[in-house]
Design a protein that fits this description.
Elements lengths: L8 H5 L3 H23 L8 H29 L1
Helix pairs in contact: 2-3
C-alpha cells in the first residue's frame, strides 16, 4: 500500500521539483490502485477516487505554475 499522500496545497508547494514529480508519480499509482479496487468491487471508501483525481490536478497545476514562472523569469532577463 502506498504511503498517505500529501493533501494540503501548502504542503505540496513546499516540495522541490523532484519531490513534486515523485509525489505525482505516487498519486498516479494510487489512482491505478483505486480504479482496480473499484472494478473488482473491493472499494471501501468510494470518495477516494475523486479525491485522488483532484490531488493529481493540484499537483499538475502547481507544476505548471512553476514552469510558467521559470519561463517568465527567463523572458524577463
Amino acid at each position: 500500500m502506498a504511503k498517505k499522500l500529501k493533501t494540503k496545497t501548502e504542503e505540496v508547494r513546499k516540495l522541490g521539483d523532484e519531490e513534486l514529480a515523485k509525489e505525482l508519480d505516487e498519486t498516479y499509482r494510487r489512482l491505478f490502485s483505486v480504479r482496480l479496487q473499484t472494478l473488482t468491487r473491493q472499494m471501501t471508501n468510494h470518495r477516494e477516487l475523486p479525491q485522488t483525481r483532484r490531488q493529481i490536478a493540484r499537483l499538475k497545476t502547481i507544476k505548471r505554475e512553476r514552469e510558467m514562472a521559470a519561463a517568465a523569469s527567463r523572458q524577463a532577463e
